[in-house]
Amino acid sequence: MAQPRGQQKIQSQQKNAKKQAGQKKKQGHDQKAAAKAALIYTCTVCRTQMPDPKTFKQHFESKHPKTPLPPELADVQA
Ligand SMILES: [Zn+2]
């Protein structure tokens, strides 16, 4: 017995929704990997790498309070 066309369409849509959800999940994972790869701020004192200037500034202020802040961090709102 063949299924009515309408039902087939709904099943197809559900399948697509599942597929899209899977892709979304994958994209989120890729973004995380990309963020991990983008550790572009290297501490000038101890060479620790950090993903963003905010983290870098917080690191710098807590780990090297006696070292003058690098000029590129002066404007960063930590
Ligand atoms: Zn450091």
TrEMBL record:
Q: Does the keyword Disulfide bond apply?
A: no
Q: Where is the Small EDRK-rich factor-like N-terminal domain?
A: 5-39
Described by its record, this protein's role is as follows: Transcription repressor involved in the exit of embryonic stem cells (ESCs) from self-renewal. Acts by repressing expression of KLF4.
Q: Where is the composition biased (Low complexity)?
A: 1-15
Bias (Basic residues): 16-27
The record, for Pfam families, names: SERF-like_N, zf-met
Q: Name one GO molecular function term.
A: zinc ion binding
Keyword Secreted included in the entry's annotation: no
Spans annotated as Disordered: 1-33, 55-78
Give the protein name, as stated in the record: Zinc finger protein 706
Q: Which organism is it from?
A: Capra hircus
Domain C2H2-type: where?
41-63
Q: Which UniProt keywords apply?
A: Cytoplasm, Metal-binding, Nucleus, Repressor, Translation regulation, Zinc, Zinc-finger
Among Gene3D superfamilies, the record links this protein to: At2g23090-like (4.10.1050.10)
Q: Name one GO cellular component term.
A: nucleus
Task: Tell me where on the tree of life, at the top rank, the source sits.
Answer: Eukaryota
Q: Per the UniProt entry, what are the Gene Ontology biological process annotations, in alphabetical order?
A: regulation of translation
Where in the cell? Cytoplasm; Nucleus
InterPro entries xref list: MBS1/2-like (IPR045230), SERF-like_N (IPR007513), ZNF706/At2g23090_sf (IPR026939), Znf_C2H2_type (IPR013087)
